[in-house]
Amino acid sequence: MLPYFRSVAIVGKYMDDSALQNMRDDLTHLVQYLQSQELHVCVEEQTARFIRHEGFELASLENIGHKADLVVVMGGDGTMLSVARALRDSNVCLIGINRGRLGFLTDLQTDNMLGELEKILQGEYQLESRMLLQSAVSRAQSQLWQSVAMNDVVIKSAFRLIELEVHVDGKFVSRQRADGLILATPTGTTAYGLSAGGPIMHPDLHAISIVPISPHTLSYRPITVPADSVIEVIIVNAADAQISFDGQGQHALSEGDHIRIARGEQEIQLLHPKTYCYFDMLRNKLNWG
């Protein structure tokens, strides 16, 4: 049975005041419309500072997923990624209004967002689960940190080649010199992995793409493994290597560091309009003929 929405939360591009200022009118119209539908409306506290209206509940990003049945994210793919990671434990449905550039994850446009939301609130939508990656970095057998990613985990050097060793499920795959390595979910294969020559994977697939960045040996090509694989990357030789998660937060790596990447326990619930088609989206965003 499809979820029924009684409470809707709104999150804008909460880390960017200038972006929130530019979307002030759209955010205000969105709140007014949802309240006119007799829905409980909750707004992320940073976003709320730019709304010219009253009568809604305030909540932190960490808590907002537990107060709503649906979270509407206004921004670009970066905003959607950060909100999805923050709300992953709540299992709340997310839908995006595109105020960014390409917008692979944000389906609605501001010029028709209220009409599309009306259909969605009446049950005319598609629900889709997207997998996450769980990563842990260890040094000298002590875990330094762990994080999740919806798009990709990227290991790279800014200025020189690094040497990496890759293992899948305890089996040695390769030792390579390259600018870095991308480990991408199907969602992330239209991001950095695509620019590096990796495959596009349909989001219904359960798989992880391993994509080298400018490998020194040109025969080293991307490889896709099952989603339940455990991937281990060992930093063999690197002077300035870093790891990032969805491109949002970097950490320095050292020689001998071990990075473990596996499928995350949670999944992200994305909501699309009833007319959404993944191939139409690719064709429009990537300018295919």
From TrEMBL:
Main location: cytoplasm
Cofactor(s) required, per the database record: a divalent metal cation
Keyword Lyase carried by entry: no
Active site (record annotation): D77 (proton acceptor)
Entries under InterPro entries matching the protein: ATP-NAD_kinase_N, ATP-NAD_kinase_PpnK-typ_C, NAD/diacylglycerol_kinase_sf, NADK
Catalytic reaction annotation: NAD(+) + ATP = ADP + NADP(+) + H(+)
Nuclease is among the record's keywords: no
Matches recorded under SUPFAM superfamilies: NAD kinase/diacylglycerol kinase-like
Example of a GO MF term: NAD+ kinase activity
Compartment(s): Cytoplasm
EC number: 2.7.1.23
Keywords, sorted A to Z: ATP-binding, Cytoplasm, Kinase, NAD, NADP, Nucleotide-binding, Transferase
Residue numbers binding NAD(+): D77, G78, N151, D152, R177, D179, T190, A191, Y192, G193, L194, S195, Q248
UniProt record similarity statement: Belongs to the NAD kinase family.
Primary role: Involved in the regulation of the intracellular balance of NAD and NADP, and is a key enzyme in the biosynthesis of NADP. Catalyzes specifically the phosphorylation on 2'-hydroxyl of the adenosine moiety of NAD to yield NADP.
Full protein name: NAD kinase
